[in-house]
Write a structure and sequence with these properties.
Length: 267
């Protein structure tokens, strides 16, 4: 059995309830996996708009989910029951899988697991005046809602959940990085990037060159670059296997890939 990452430490920063698949994929490639959950899903500050939206599903033509967390936050409010005429869309395979646990088969699954990909795949199906409900994270980008509005649809965004930093994260980070270089760390959302940097506070600029960042895709890569980090690896396709493949490619290109990513100065 090939284990291309034998002995390489990889820190997985996904939320605890979502880290299992990625951790297992890295372990199968031979990596020494450490868990550092940097997100926890928390209810919206005001749950009433979400509750109201769940009670008014009959008014909508589409229900569009841009994350599995949105599925898990929204569907319990409906008991998993949806109006028969309502079409459901998912941003990618993980979100589609979350829907299927509720025995809901999405009408559409985006081929590219990002807002732009979902918007592009929705465009041929969205007629002018169609009402589209978008349960989202509190910090969701406006890309999807704005794009649907430009198509003539009537998108309604509602906060389904927020994201916090787990209370134990600073202690866990100190144990992992206090006496060792940072090394390989996975980043699967812009919020995780921000939380990771917050852990180092005033010591970030000194420690930053130690980081070898593995990014899930373009949106997270943009956040890393804005923080002065050029990812050492970026997944070419979404999902756990894509992340592992990206790190394997970076490691197998030779000694240069073992150095920290090239850094740019934060403006």
């Amino acid at each position: 059995m090939t284990v291309p990452l034998r002995g390489l430490r990889v820190v997985v920063t996904r939320a605890e309830h979502q880290a299992g698949g990625l951790a297992e994929a890295f372990a199968a490639a031979g990596a020494q996996v450490e868990l550092l959950p940097l997100l926890e899903v928390i209810p919206p500050a005001d749950p009433r708009p979400l509750e109201r939206a769940a009670s008014e599903l009959a008014l909508y033509d589409w229900l569009v989910f841009s994350s599995s967390n949105a599925v898990e936050a929204f569907l319990p409010l409906t008991g998993g029951a949806l109006p028969e005429r309502l079409r459901v869309a998912a941003v990618g395979p993980a979100t589609a899988a979350a829907l299927r646990t509720w025995e809901i088969e999405p009408f559409l699954v985006a081929r590219r697991s990002e807002a732009e990909g979902l918007l592009g795949d929705l465009a041929p199906h969205v007629d002018r005046g169609r009402r589209i409900l978008l349960p989202q994270a509190a910090d969701a980008r406006s890309t999807l809602a704005e794009g649907l509005a430009q198509l003539g649809a009537e998108p309604v965004s509602v906060v389904a959940y927020d994201k916090g930093l787990p209370a134990e994260a600073p202690r866990c980070a100190a144990e992992l990085f206090g006496a060792a270089e940072i090394g390989w760390v996975t980043f699967t959302s812009p919020r995780i990037v921000r939380h990771f940097i917050e852990l180092f506070a005033g010591d970030w600029e000194r420690r930053r060159p130690e980081l070898r960042a593995a990014s899930i895709g373009p949106v997270t890569t943009t956040e890393l670059r804005q923080r002065g980090v050029e990812p050492a690896a970026e997944a070419a396709r979404p999902g756990d296997d894509g992340m592992v493949e990206a790190v394997v490619r970076a490691v197998e290109t030779g000694p240069e890939a073992q150095r920290p990513g090239r850094l740019s100065r934060t403006p």
